[in-house]
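Example (one chain per record):
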Amino acid sequence: MPRITTSRTRRTRRAAALTAAGAAALVSLTPTAAQAHGAVFNPVSRIAACYAEGPETPKSQVCKDLVADSGTQPLYDWNEVNIANADGNHRALIPDGKLCSANREKYRALDWARTDWPATAVSPGPFGFKVRVTAPHSGTMTMYITKQGFDPTQPLKWSDLDSTPAAVYATTRTSTDGYYAFNGTLPSRTGRHIVYMVWQRNDSPEAFYSCSDVTFGTAAATAGTATAARTTAEAPTEAEIADGAALSTVSHAGHGGDEQPPALSAESAAAPASPLPLALAGAGALAAFGAGSVLVARRRGGN
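Predicted structure:
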């Protein structure tokens, strides 16, 4: 016998469908925290150092000039200096003089060839690199350093980088307390240099880049003047990271690969209340409303 669909059945199905769709829409509209990828914290990268000073009240002249030139948003987005479709073609996509910004206009100030960038005092030999990641990715992180004789008053070129990396590290989709920590070796150098990071994902064509200013020599390591204090790089604290998170505009979603939730450091403050319970409560209310609609439809159909 052919199945007969009554008008009452059709109304019931429509009400149920609208209820499910409304609940799904409510959950999808629930705001999510901004997510991005990471920055070098040892030696401290340029963008991390300026963010640590405070985007609204930077202390060093170069960070003040960065904000005056590009605004505060690049600093709030400290964990995103990337090229979404790099796919290993770093030299082809990033011209000389644009290495620190990854040739992105948003981060153009990072390319300034100045000697007053906050710097990390280092010495030749073993060095513990540390990268704060807010979204770990599978790939390869390569740390280069400029050759002896590098002139920091000139824009950084690919040819300025030593062909032998100071470290090569295979990254995974997990991190320890929000960090990748690995060892490398800094060669013999004197004066001011740049450590340049290239982090190429292998689950996506996306890549990330970073410039960290370092100083070699006992004078740099022991300088105690007020000027030296102002130009010593400091990494952001977990509290500072948390304070600026709401003003970040970047997201790691949509770049391919096995995307992971943001990694949180064990030192971070308590996370803000999740919007999920509110969304579920709203969805429940909407479902209840839909159920009521179904009952009304049934009663009308029975009249």
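Caption: Confidence is low (pLDDT under 50) at residues 1-36, 219-230, 255-303.
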